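ok so I'm stuck.
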Amino acid sequence: MSDYGNVSGTGSDKELQDFLELEKQKAQVNAQLHEFNEICWEKCIMGKPSTKLDQATERCLSNCVDRFIDTSVLITKRFAEILNKRSGLDSD
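replied:
not stuck anymore, here's the structure
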């Protein structure tokens, strides 16, 4: 029986764990962003079938995009902080 995740002495366990943790965090962020997009869609567009956007709908979408950007920037900064902390711990 082979255990691919358990290679002793090479550091690949830590690398694999770090990679999996990062991927897990990315998946969580994507799920949150998807949920955020659904909320904005339902808030701004749902129930308003039209070929053109009225001013209120356009303003709503603009605000949603602004919040989306704010959220993305916040998440990016948080990831950078996490990576900086990890790299600081690794060098000790």
